Prior knowledge:
The chain is mainly β and 129 residues long.
Amino acid sequence: VQLVESGGVLAHAGDSLKLSCVASGSRFDTLVAGWFRQGPGQERQGIAHMSLGSGHRFLAISDSAADRFHVSTNDAHTTMFLHILDVRPEDAGAYFCAAMDRSLFDGEWPDLSSTSVLWGEGTQVTVSR
């Protein structure tokens, strides 16, 4: 499975953004997938993750993101989106898409350096005031 993010831009505070992650070699309804943000000098932090599989469906969003962030996919489940409303300066950073086999997910992401977690290269969001 390969993941490719896009949609990162220089945004103005208050804008809405839509980031995309395209999966090749698999589909998001067979995986657990999520979005992470990494600010300058910071570790990657989870924003939201989801599973769309039958009998294994959930969407989890971190408390700090719940009011302005939303995750969705296209109908074919080949592209996952991160919608950011009312962009703020603290939203700046590199945004990464991650995925792992649903059978290996026990409710939390493992160590993010684990080989069981697949990553895209990231897309950069810069925010001007």
